[in-house]
Amino acid sequence: MKKAINLLIAVSVLHLVMLGAGCKKDKAQKDPDKDTKGLYSFSNTEYTGIANVGNHYFPRPLSLRFGAKDSVTAWSHLTLSVWRRGDVNGKITKVEEDDQGFTYVTILFDLPGDEQYNSPQVYRISADKKTITGGSSPIISMVDMKLFPKDAPSVVGVWAQPEHPGWFPDVNVTYFLERGVTNYKQNGEFILIAFDPALNFSEKFKQDGSRITFWGVNPLVTANKITSIPYYGVLSADGKILYVDAYEFSAVRITTSLSTSNYYGPRGVTPWLIRQ
User: pTM (2 decimals)?
Assistant: First the structure.
């Protein structure tokens, strides 16, 4: 009888050990009362790149930022039954780490009006914290997301698709100037707002880390009128690529869900510009 009881205790202990061997609390989780810099090992970080966001048919630019504690913001254009431009707020509900050092973060996004889609999203951060994967459609499923540097590279400069001048003509070529405005070249010539003397057409832009809000330009919609189209972009982690997308599609000249040809760029591919 005594041997049977000892065997039962041993089996129970082994079962508990096995349950705890999978995922456990984040090893780098900090004491918020002693360390105000962040609650988790990935706190105050940002991941940028592209992700399947909402019901759009190709990946969209995305910036995912973790706050000091449990707050998260996903910055993109999330379209379900409601359009959301910019920040989608979320909250971390669970953090676990496995024996290989991967961190699993469960996030519940705040999607009023789209509660039927609002399931917890589980993301996996690599052991070196350089990449994040996971999530599920139709909310936010990562495609290619990497850790963005804390010292964000400036977007100031010239961005284009030099080998494909016909692609994404609203934004190809865009000059981001230090004074906070953009100029545009199309068909090899600057778009002008005045001709004598020549004055380049310009629009304002704003940079917040990796997040760029700016305008695309379509001068062909109405004769003698330049149409500005709201765009947004996200810088890649190395600062060499600007993934772009439009916030409004009535006059846009990039591939969209309604595109029937590759005239304005390859279908099913996130529009992108290359730093020149």
Answer: 0.85
